Amino acid sequence: MEYVSVNGGREMPGHSIEARVSQRAFFAVSALLFAVSAALTIAGATSMSAMGEMPMPGGWTMSAAWMRMCGQTWPAVAASFLGMWVVMMVAMMLPSLVPMLWRYREAVGAAGEMRLGWLTMLAGVGYFFVWTALGMAAFPLGVALAALEMEMPALARAVPLAVGVIVLSAGALQFTAWKARHLACCRATPGRCLKLPRLPALPADAATAWRYGLRLGLHCSYCCAGLTMVLLVAGVMDLRVMAVVKAAITVERLAPGGERMARIVGVGVVGAGVLLIARAVGLG
């Protein structure tokens, strides 16, 4: 679905200059936000790594992200995890989100530069609100599971095998029609994502911007469900895992033939799951 620009696609010279300035400002702010979030993510992961990990039965180590350090309160631990989660998600998802936000700006049509910037920011906040809610749900589940693993050695010994099975399942999810449907929604035009009829331009209002950000965030979280599970079980603050998952998400979202790329990613994830299961069985 295409949206025509103001004046049927014919811009006056002044408008063309203003559009170029707007484009440069948008991408400059996006690049700065990515650089800051990436730096904070690296710093947080390094700090978490310095805290050390707890050796567990079964030959694996538990991340400090799920544990309360001496002198910490659980609200402080939760706030720290959520802060790191949000920053990490901005760094991981922004490269694939920026093109979608730019398409939203183009679809909005005539709007003042200040208002367009505000609407774009609102759409982005709506998108990351979904990921923040996901982090808020993941933390108590992770803490509860970690507590059970520390109290039940038999459960802890089963973790390496369970991780392999989860990774294998995440890879298999990449081949499903469910994955393909949500990936198509993530790559769709803003109007199609919002299920609006074909219009010359999207409404330039806060409700539409917020709704677009939320819908895109929901489709993205569904689309990335398998890869997010890989991140959570393989190393939520492991920079290597983060880099691989980020690359996989970006490629399947932006490269031509997204569904084909998702299947290629699936082959790699399935292979990793098989290796993890074989290793767990060998250690067992």
From TrEMBL:
Q: Enumerate the UniProt keywords alphabetically.
A: Membrane, Transmembrane, Transmembrane helix
InterPro entries per record: PpoB2-like (IPR018688)
- State the superkingdom: Bacteria
Q: Which organism is it from?
A: Paraburkholderia caffeinilytica
Return the protein name: Metal-binding protein
- Short name of any one Pfam family annotated for the protein: PpoB2
Ranges annotated as spanning the membrane: 25-52, 72-95, 116-148, 154-173, 220-241, 261-281
Q: What is the lineage of its organism?
A: Bacteria, Pseudomonadati, Pseudomonadota, Betaproteobacteria, Burkholderiales
